[in-house]
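Encode chain A's predicted structure.
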Amino acid sequence: MPASAPPPDAKRQSAPRPRGPKRGRPPGKPLSRAELAARRANLQKARAAPRAVIYRRTARRRAASRANIQKAITWRRSPGGNAVARLNALKHGAFARSLDDTVRRLREDPAEFQRHLRLFRRAYVPQDKREALVIQRLAETTWRRLRLFHAQARWETDRLHALFAAAPCPRRLTPEETERRALALLGTLNRWDTLLREAAKLESRVERLLRVLLWHRSGGTIKFKLLSPRREAFFTELEDFDPDELIERVQYLTPRRRAQLRAQVEQRHGAKHRPAA
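Encoded structure for chain A:
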């Protein structure tokens, strides 16, 4: 090789030749059979690799994970991120802090919600800011109570799916097994405890708001009091109530409160009301 000729490495270190614009796939153009086959082969090759290789911890992956975590924390702590993320666990929205944030999330009609609020303002005619606030809360509480009936459908659907998923699937059912499944289905459908308990809480809140409104408008002369499931003062004089009405009111009580009431009745009326051992 002549002395004036450059070494082989010099050609490689020379400036790269300018390239033209990168050719890409036109948008919307379908892949050819060869391209589809090549992509499927690459996918199979990637899936065949050991998990230790696929999910190996490299410095680049650790840095990317830390950056993503920090980005998520920053977004979660921001006002906008907090407003969105706090509704992730929203189910039925009966006891959500703000109804305005949950109407669209639950796919309810915002116009219907505003019409519901206007109906209450028209019915009770607020005279000042305090009454307007009480009536607003009264309308929102009744809207929450309406949501419970939609929640009952969701609860019942989940229970039915869980019941059928746990049952085996034989080719034939014996009459005894059919009877057991019939009883299980009726027991699943006849579960209203959650709905009644939560509806009673909201009914108590409605009564409390009405009591505040009447107390404010009458200057304390009207002491409104009807039925509050959290306050069973009507049991002080059991003889003054019709038995059917009493049974209807007892169903709103919790099992613990029923036991306490039973003990009070036994203590008050003696052993004649105690059940036989």
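The chain has three domains: 47-84, 99-226, 232-277.
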